[in-house]
Amino acid sequence: MKENSFVLWAVFLAAAFLVASMDCATQNALPKLHPSEKRALKEIARKLGKRDWDFSVDPCSGGGNFTVASRPKGSESQLNCTCSLPLSNHSSSSSSCHVTILLLKGENLTGVLPPELSQLPYLEQLDLSRSVLNGTVPTEWSTMKLRILSFMGNKLSGPFPMALTKITTLNNLSLEANNFYGPIPSEIGNLVNLQQIHLSSNNFNGELPATLTKLTNLTELRISGNNFSGRIPDFLKKLTKLEKLQMQGCLMKGPIPSGISQLTRLTDLRISDLRGNASTFPDLRGMESMNKLILRNCSIHGTIPPYIGEMKKLKQLDLSFNNLSGEIPSSSQNFANVDFIFLIGNMLTGDIPSWVLTRSKIVDISYNNFTVGSGPTQCSEGGSINTVEIYASQADKMPNVPSCLKRNFPCTSNGKYRYALNINCGGTDIDINGTKFEADTDPKGASMLYINRDQNWAFSSSGNFMDNAVSADTYIVTNKSKLTVPHSELYMSARLSALSLTYYGLCMYPGNYTVRLHFAEIVFSGDNTYTSLGERLFNVFIQGKLVLEEFNIAKSAGGPGKAVIKNFTTTVTNYTLEIRLYWAGRGTTAIPDRGVYGPLISAISVTPNFDPPPEEPTTGRRVPLLLIVGVSVSAFLVTLLAVIICWRRSKRSKSMYKGDIIRWNNNSSQTTVIEACVLQQRGTLLELVDPSLGQEYPKEEALLMLNVALLCTNASPTLRPNMSQVISLLEGQAPLQPLLSKLSISSTSANSMDPMRVTRNFWQISSNESQSLSLNELCTDSSESLTETIPLNHSGTYQ
Ligand SMILES: *[C@@H]1O[C@H](CO)[C@@H](O)[C@H](O)[C@H]1NC(C)=O
Ligand SMILES: *[C@@H]1O[C@H](CO)[C@@H](O)[C@H](O)[C@H]1NC(C)=O
Ligand SMILES: *[C@@H]1O[C@H](CO)[C@@H](O)[C@H](O)[C@H]1NC(C)=O
Ligand SMILES: *[C@@H]1O[C@H](CO)[C@@H](O)[C@H](O)[C@H]1NC(C)=O
Ligand SMILES: *[C@@H]1O[C@H](CO)[C@@H](O)[C@H](O)[C@H]1NC(C)=O
Ligand SMILES: *[C@@H]1O[C@H](CO)[C@@H](O)[C@H](O)[C@H]1NC(C)=O
Ligand SMILES: *[C@@H]1O[C@H](CO)[C@@H](O)[C@H](O)[C@H]1NC(C)=O
Ligand SMILES: *[C@@H]1O[C@H](CO)[C@@H](O)[C@H](O)[C@H]1NC(C)=O
Ligand SMILES: *[C@@H]1O[C@H](CO)[C@@H](O)[C@H](O)[C@H]1NC(C)=O
Ligand SMILES: *[C@@H]1O[C@H](CO)[C@@H](O)[C@H](O)[C@H]1NC(C)=O
Ligand SMILES: *[C@@H]1O[C@H](CO)[C@@H](O)[C@H](O)[C@H]1NC(C)=O
Ligand SMILES: *[C@@H]1O[C@H](CO)[C@@H](O)[C@H](O)[C@H]1NC(C)=O
User: Fold this and answer.
1) Which of these ranges, 417-421, 506-510, 759-763, has the smallest mean pLDDT?
2) Whether residue 379 is found in the same domain as residue 458
3) Is 386's pLDDT higher than 70?
4) What mean pLDDT is predicted for residues 609-633?
5) Domain containing residue 387: CATH number
6) Is residue 635 part of a domain?
7) Distances (CA, A) of 364 to 113, 171, 310, 467, 496
8) Residue 641: is its pLDDT beyond 70?
């Protein structure tokens, strides 16, 4: 028995040995993570707050959640190892693997950067982007041999981490969208292998260190959204391999240094919102690979150089808010391939090239000084071409220019004024406490004008969201869950803009108003995930005056999902109220996703600081004769001219012109006799001529006809010519001058009244009403009917 049991025991031991050695052999075939790295990894998991790693499985095995194929959208979890063959067949401890890549993206990790990461000596690539890690980079990291390191979108803070300046193996480094501050240390020059460095959306300040010039292999430098000081250094020209240079909203001073001309490999150059001195257009000749060129709000004056139109790879061009003058260069036909063109807010002159008006891709030329008449014939809404306020002051007095093309977007109301304005930006019609907030649901906004149906408000929206890999940007955002703020319906949806968004209150009665701007941050979250780290900063101007600078909705409201109302007092003088929101390149642009930035607004309400006149009865109100005549005869002018044209055409075979020479389109017509009289007095009556005729019409005859028409509109019957006089005047058989010199209406009306005001109040009438007075009644001496008054309602429209 004893021997038997001994034998059994021996067999058991042998079997056990066999199993053990088999296990050993398996281990040699599939080496495991080096034990010291496994220990470090456990500590790393603890400090990062990474809880789903299962250490009962080898981290290099592909299991244990170290590499997970399907993660929530936007996140990624991956660990790669390099494994060496065992040094000896008898020593299992030498068979080992090492972590080389660790990607934990979008994981919402809430911990800190573990010093133990430096105990992964083979680690080359570390990506901890889009979490909520805080603290800073441990000094232990200075021994690491990383090539690629990203902390993009975290809560890391402190001065630029010096440990990083020792990791000289680094090729790519991103500290984007954290809370780092202070100057960039000169030691950054140690990182000679750097190809990409992203420092955007932090609070770095001071001047850029000259040691940056040691980074001669740098292809990408992004420093937008910081608080740097000083001028853009000319030494950047030494970084001749640069392909992407982004410095938007980083508070540096211009001008753009001339040395930039040496960076001929640039494909992506974005500079915006420079302070300091004006400069001419930087020399970008020879930059044939240019793909995205943004020089916005950089105080650039002079002309757009023609070679821009020859950059064959150009896809996006933004030269907005400079002082560029001169014409759009003729070489610009090549812009056909450019997807987005923004030339907003310059002083460009000359004719608008025809390719602009026929384009199907985005082009925004709003706020310029183009030749009057070279723009569209109507306020083209929606679409892809924005032509708001393209004519500067030249068109101010021209009655037949579409209103949206004119400076300050004047009112075209037929005398109807508003004393309040309520818009539910990005949302539908809603009633809040008895006030109707009007719907604003047009989904577009890269380059568009929207005018509401009643033509009493409008908005102009410019800019596309860059780098978002989305073919169609959305300009309206909707909150997914219900907000717990009063009147939450106002805040559930909002309008967004990538660059500039201007709301116009049109036809606002002059006076002082309270403007309330309603905001709630509904894109960023208030939880402890990376989506809470977004920082939206923008500026607000009311009537051209800066009222909010670097406004941060969430900060102002005490968190995302909360409402904040900013109220302002403003004065409307010219019937138009202008509220502009502008993105000055500040804040984050990649949280929760790339391309998330720019102004957001939930609602606008504007109330008068005066008592609006009470609603008046709609009949029986008497108004001065002069104004009635003004209204009646302006419509009459149409009739008269039509008669004259027909008459001349039938009389003479050699008719020199076709159709109307004056634009009497009911939608855009704003001509009043009074305005005509003002022009007549100035000797510029020809401004009434339809600009689309260009110079191709008989000026003398046009002038003659206009003058005769004007005479026929005279308030005093004794001064009006009769029909036979009209005919001889038009035939050139009677002199005009004696009659004109008696013209009295012009002097009284032009001097005693604000012509703009008269226009707004008394101009537009429908074609039906024009028939109420006949040709004979106006152009003969016996027209006593003119002394009758015609009832007008309070707002000046006919009943
Ligand atoms: C992987 O993670 C998920 C979710 O955290 C967890 O349910 C699962 O048990 C983990 N798998 C392993 C092998 O640890
Ligand atoms: C890292 O691991 C993943 C998943 O196992 C694999 O798809 C990928 O190719 C590996 N990457 C490298 C550089 O080895
Ligand atoms: C390990 O064993 C293999 C054969 O099993 C042999 O070819 C190899 O040389 C051995 N290595 C060492 C270091 O002894
Ligand atoms: C992190 O949080 C965001 C919301 O901010 C969420 O969309 C994402 O799925 C989360 N990531 C993981 C890995 O849970
Ligand atoms: C990091 O965040 C934690 C929890 O929010 C906090 O207790 C800790 O003080 C923070 N650490 C640093 C360095 O900010
Ligand atoms: C690192 O930078 C290079 C050069 O810009 C780039 O081609 C590469 O894709 C980057 N790698 C990563 C992981 O970002
Ligand atoms: C720059 O890159 C080239 C090749 O791309 C390499 O040969 C050279 O060593 C790099 N220079 C530095 C300073 O890293
Ligand atoms: C607009 O252009 C005209 C010439 O076309 C010029 O006389 C005028 O000064 C310009 N106005 C502005 C504001 O630049
Ligand atoms: C709604 O209007 C009433 C009456 O004017 C007022 O008492 C009440 O405070 C208003 N409610 C809100 C939420 O403004
Ligand atoms: C409007 O406001 C301005 C500036 O606050 C003030 O000077 C002016 O008197 C106000 N006008 C009226 C009519 O109240
Ligand atoms: C306007 O704002 C001021 C302070 O911001 C506040 O005291 C006032 O009550 C507000 N007025 C209205 C009418 O909301
Ligand atoms: C109002 O219009 C007049 C005449 O067009 C112009 O001179 C003035 O600058 C305008 N004012 C404002 C505030 O737009």
Assistant:
1) 759-763
2) no
3) yes
4) 51
5) 3.80.10
6) yes
7) 46, 39, 19, 19, 17
8) no
Expressed as residue numbers, the domain containing 328 is: 303-407
Lowest-pLDDT range, 298-302, 383-387, 433-437? 383-387
User: What would the two tokens of residue 8 be?
Assistant: 């059994």
φ, ψ of residue 798 in degrees (nearest 5):
-75, 150
pLDDT higher than 70, residue 727:
no
Q: Which amino acids bring their CB within 6 angstroms of ligand 12?
A: 396, 408, 573-574
| Cα separations in angstroms, 408 against 367, 667, 692, 742 | 10, 19, 22, 36
Query: Mean pLDDT score of the chain, rounded to an integer?
Result: 81
What are 745-787's pLDDT values in tens digits?
333 333 333 333 222 222 222 233 333 333 233 332 333 332 2
Phi-psi region of 423 (alpha: psi -120 to 50; beta: other; left: phi over 0): beta
Question: Are 430 and 575 part of one and the same domain?
Answer: yes
Ligand nearest the Cα atom of residue 528: 4
Whether pLDDT at 574 is above 80? yes
Tell me if 196 CB under 6 Å of ligand 6.
yes
Q: Is the CB of 80 under 6 A from ligand 2?
A: yes
Q: Is 110 in the pocket of ligand 5 (CB under 6 A)?
A: no
pLDDT in tens, 318-337: 999 999 999 999 877 778 88
764, two tokens: 């537009």
Going by CA atoms, what residue is nearest to atom 10 of ligand 9? 433
- The residue written with tokens 């508003």 in the block is 418
Q: Cα(567) to centroid of ligand 11, in Å?
A: 6
The domain boundary, picked from 368, 383, 407, lies at: 407
Q: How far apart are CA 492 and CA 326, in angstroms?
A: 44
Nearest atom in ligand 4 to the alpha carbon of residue 73 is 9
